[in-house]
Structures are given as C-alpha cells and as structure tokens.
Design goal:
CATH architecture of the largest domain: Beta Barrel
CATH class of the largest domain: Mainly Beta
Strand content: 25-35%
CATH superfamily of the largest domain: Efflux pump adaptor protein, beta barrel domain
Pfam families: Beta-barrel_RND_2, BSH_RND, HH_MFP_RND, YknX_C
Protein name: Efflux RND transporter periplasmic adaptor subunit
Helix content: 25-40%
Family: Belongs to the membrane fusion protein (MFP) (TC 8.A.1) family.
Keywords: Coiled coil, Membrane, Transmembrane, Transmembrane helix
Order of helices and strands: HHHEEEEEEEHHEEEEEEEEEEEEEEEEEE
InterPro entries: Beta-barrel_RND_2, MdtA-like_BSH, MdtA-like_HH, RND_pump_MFP, YknX-like_C
Length: 414
Amino acid sequence: MNASAELLKELRIDRQKGAAPPPSSPRRGLWITLAVVALVLLAGVGWFAFGREKPLEVTTAPVLAIQQGTASSSVLDASGYVVARRMATVSAKITGKVREVMIEEGMRVEAGQIMATLDPIDADAQRSLSASQLEAARAQLAGLKAQVAQADAEAARLQQLVGQQLVSRSQYDQATAQRDSLRAQLKTAERNTQVAADSLAIADLGVDNNIVRAPFSGVVTAKAAQPGEIVSPLSAGGGFTRTGIGTIVDMESLEIEVEVGEAYIGRVQPKMPVEATLNAYPEWKIPAEVIAIIPTADRGKATVKVRVALKVKDPRIVPEMGVRVSFLEAAAPAQAEAPKGVRVPASALVERDQKTVAFVVSDDGHAQQVPVTVGVALNNDRQVTAGLSAGQQVVNNPPPELRDGSAVVEKQAP
C-alpha cells in the first residue's frame, strides 16, 4: 500500500513548474523606449558637436560689373600724389599788425572776398594828409585863376589905351608881363593839383593794402595768422612775424603727379587713358588721362614726372592724397560696345584640377566651386567672361582646404 501511494504521488502534475510566466509590466516597456530615444538624442548631439564640419573663416569680395572703358589692360603701374595746379599762400602787400582774420580751415572763399584786415592807422593818417594837400592845391589854383582873369582884362584894356595913345607903351608891356607870369603860375598850380590828386590816389591804395582779399575762388586749407600778429610779405628772420594770412587751394585744378622710372617712360604717351585709385578709397576706380610728360628727368631718382588729369571732380579728392595709377592701353574701336563679363580680384581665382575656378558663397553659407573663363588683367583685378555674374560674393584668397560645398563664415576684422 505504501509503495502504491508513493507511485501515485509521482504521477501527480506539478502546476508550479509548468505555469506560464506572468505578463510584463507596462511601465517597464515605457522605460525601455525612453532609454532608446535618449541614446539617439545623445548620438545626434555628439555628432553635431564633434562630427560636424566646422566652417572655414574666409574673406569675401564682390563681383563687379565692368564699366565702359575699363576692359583695357594695364601697361604700367605707378604711384603718386594729388596736387593742385592753383594754390596760393595769401599775404598782405605791406607790413602791418593784423586787426581781424575772417577765414577758417575748410571755408570756401570767392575771388575778391576779404580774408583779413590790418590796422590802418598809418595809412589813414597818410590819406588825410594827402587829402589836405589836394584841397590846398585846389584853393591855390582857384586864386591864380582869378588873378589870371584880372590880368587878362587889364592887359586888354591897356592895349586899347595904347592904341589911342592915352598910356605909355611901357605900362602895357608891364601889364602883359604880369599876365604871362600869372599864366605860368596857373599852369604850375594845375600840375601841383594833379600831383596832389595822384598822391591821394596812392594813399587810397595804401589804405586798401590793409585789406587782404582772396585772389581766386577756392577752399582755405591753412590759417596762418591771428589778430595782433605782425605780418609781412618778406620774412623778417625771426619767429614773431608771419609771412601769410592763409593758404587757398582751387579744388577745380586738382590733378595727379606721378614719377615714372626712366626705363618705363616709353610706355607712357600723352592723352593715354589712366585708371586712378586713391589709397583712402581702394574700391573707387577714377577715370583719368595723361596731360603731359615733363621733358626733364630727376638725376638722383632716375624718374620722369608725368601729369595726369582727373576726369571726376569729387569732394573726397583732396591735395597730397596718395594715389595708385594704372596706365591703360587705348581701347580698340571694335571695343566701343559695352564691355563683356565682370571683374573680380585676381586673388579670388585659383587652379583646381587644372582648371581656373572661383568659390561663390551661397546664401546658406556654403562655398560653391565654379569654373570660370578669365579675360584680361585690370590692375589688381581680372576680367571674367563666363562663370560669374555681378552681385555675387566670391572667396578672396581661398585656402587649400576649401572644397566644393564647404561651410564658410566671414572672417571678423581684428
């Protein structure tokens, strides 16, 4: 019986060992999903921070349209200065003390405008004396005229009486001699009156010399005297006497003065077109023209001076400015139509895969490699006839690591 009971216990089914596992909790699945999302986000942030390509810092330059007449190539480059053909340091004609100065630097004056006045005490006194002398001479002249009229009448009356034998001939001769003497004195008085009048005119000039006027229209570039100082047209040798009131420059007479080496002067011809660039405004191309080649050379510097006329009048152009000029070839008649292509800095063009290319900066900050067709040299720029259009921005001096599609950013000025 016991053996049978043990056999029955072995045949009983153990439900705990064969039971199905309990269902998993919903919260456990949610945590797994959040963990996966977090890992993806961390991977994205890591790529953005460490795996993404950093933009290259570059400088850009605009693509400009070629203006009419600028497609000629440069045959010679030189540097010079802006000078004024009409410039004067205005001074008084006499030595005197300054009473008032009516100019300031940068002020525009017209021809004949009063710039300063001197103390006119001495000149006024001399004029008063000359005026008095003239009045005295005129009074003496009037008295002699009256005497001459009386002597003429007396001589005429005695002449009639002599004819009637009522007076002696000697009385008539005495009267005529008196008349002729008065006539001679009258002529002397008339000359003295004229001399007094001329003396008064000279005294008026002396008074007027105390007024300093502008000899021509222009702009005051220097104010040299102050009220109370002594000015003189000649240097007194000391440091207390001024030789001028101020300096005036006629801005309409500005031109460029360039010194060209003797070895290259043969490339320059009168009426030759010139492109000038002021050091202060490097992006401004000023049309100009050769006026003349000065027919003498500087032995010490082995240079020849060339005068260049500016075809543009602008307030930004002032004397003594540094300027770079490019002497251009004369444009051929066939090039009279509108020039083709655009101009870019020569440093923006590089060779990649045996091709001349430029890197155009797109709106999204990426550099696009563009093959270009290069034309003639334009000073520091180059003509591009195909591949670029005016208004685009190109990378200037592209670095070797720059590639098509690279992210770029404008380099900030230090």
